[in-house]
Write a structure and sequence with these properties.
409 residues; mainly alpha; 17 helices; 0% strand
Length: 409
């Protein structure tokens, strides 16, 4: 049965009674609702309590329950949920047209604005001495504020979605769009009102998520720059310490002898870089992972891994002309081991960041016939790139091949 479109008669909309209702009821409701929102956010931050018992030391248990957020988030989002429900329950388009944009503005300027000021003025992780780490309590407070934004987005999503998404069984966009308004049609039966309310709710969610996500990204970069990055280069230096990838002729014979005489000892020697790196990587990431939400930690890992891949690539290129075929084999094994450590825990999508590193090592260790086939004159460079999935261009592949000075006959 086709849905019947209802319209408010014009004599009602233009009546003196309707104007009195707008002036003496709806306008005060809108003003008081905005005041309630602003005052509630203000009081929530005045009574704000941080989660207790947090520590970056993995040996110490965490006495709070995850996610680790401040009490202001729960308080503010409870009020937002109540205001959304009560404003929609009025069935007045003029109410939601004022209240829902007011919620958006208050969340943007008061809620997100307050968190931003705290991140900038009270909890910015900055070392007191150059080269040292920021104080632990400052780092924890900053991580909690980033969590506040991430969980805030989740709360807003859960407040809005039940109103605008009620249909999950069809792939038809038209049917979903119609069914998503079912919960609002009973409250707003007149023409276009339900769709109008749904669009305001979507705008509330999208605007909040955009603002919060931008601040989360800024916060994640600050954690990377001030907490992770100063320890990452020393971590790599320590991982490759005492690992010789520039083996000379004597190293040739020594490596061959190790393989023939004692495979286990050779394997243990080749895994030294991986063991050094794994200890340092866990010490670097686990203290932060136990505080951040899963989503925020994934964002941080993406930033860290992008930087780590660039550093590893520069280190590989630094061996140009100073490495032989045995050193290239060891280097490829070490790089592969480091990548496996970083992407463990079902994070295989992050492996793509190391594509350039792995392809440089792959080309260095290609057999001559494989390299000749890759560079075959019968296949265009574009076809080779498409077929092999190269992220290195033709000149970089030639340069990678030329890194090994002496190859075994």
């Amino acid at each position: 049965m086709e849905h019947q479109v209802l319209k408010v008669p014009s004599f009602i909309t233009s009546s003196a009674l309707n104007q009195k209702i707008a002036d003496r009821v709806i306008s005060p409701i809108n003003a008081m609702t905005t005041f309630l929102l602003r005052r509630s956010v203000e009081r929530a931050f005045q009574l704000d309590e941080q989660p207790s018992g947090l520590s970056l030391n993995p040996a110490k248990p965490l006495h709070s329950n995850a996610p680790y957020i401040s009490s202001a988030v729960d308080d503010v989002m409870y009020i937002v949920n109540q205001v959304v429900e009560r404003s929609l329950a009025t069935s007045q388009r003029s109410v939601v047209s004022s209240v829902l944009p007011s919620i958006t503005r208050v969340l943007d300027s008061d809620f997100i604005g307050m968190i931003q000021r705290k991140m900038r003025d009270e909890s910015y992780p900055k070392a007191a001495i150059q080269g040292a780490l920021p104080p632990e309590n400052t780092i924890i407070a900053f991580l909690v504020l980033i969590n506040d934004l991430d969980i805030g987005c989740d709360y807003v999503r859960r407040i809005v979605q039940p109103w605008i998404e009620r249909y999950h069984g069809s792939n038809s966009h038209e049917e979903k769009a119609e069914a998503s308004l079912k919960s609002l049609h009973s409250l707003y039966p007149f023409e276009g009102d339900a769709l109008y309310a749904a669009n305001l709710l979507r705008s509330l969610q999208q605007t909040f998520e955009a603002k919060a996500s931008e601040l989360v990204s800024d916060g994640i970069y600050v954690v990377f720059k001030n907490v992770i990055k100063p320890r990452l280069r020393p971590l790599l230096s320590d991982a490759f310490r005492d690992i010789d990838h520039q083996m000379n002729g004597e190293g040739h014979a020594e490596a061959g002898s190790l393989v023939e005489e004692d495979d286990e000892s050779d394997a243990a020697a080749n895994e030294r870089a991986q063991h050094h790196f794994q200890r340092g990587w866990d010490a670097l990431t686990q203290p932060i992972a136990r505080i951040l939400t899963n989503g925020n930690f994934e964002r941080l890992l993406t930033t860290v891994i992008s930087y780590l891949a660039d550093v590893l690539e520069k280190r590989i290129w630094s061996y140009y002309g100073r490495i032989n075929d045995y050193g290239a084999i060891r280097l490829e094994r070490d790089i592969a081991g480091l990548v496996n450590i970083v992407v463990r825990g079902s994070r295989y999508g992050l492996r793509d960041a190391f594509a350039r590193c792995t392809q440089i090592c792959l080309i260095m260790n290609m057999e001559e016939d494989e390299w000749a086939e890759t560079q075959g004159s019968t296949t265009s460079v574009a076809d080779v790139v498409d077929d092999a999935g190269w992220v290195l261009d033709a000149d970089e592949r030639v340069r990678a091949r030329a890194m090994v000075q002496v190859r075994k006959p």
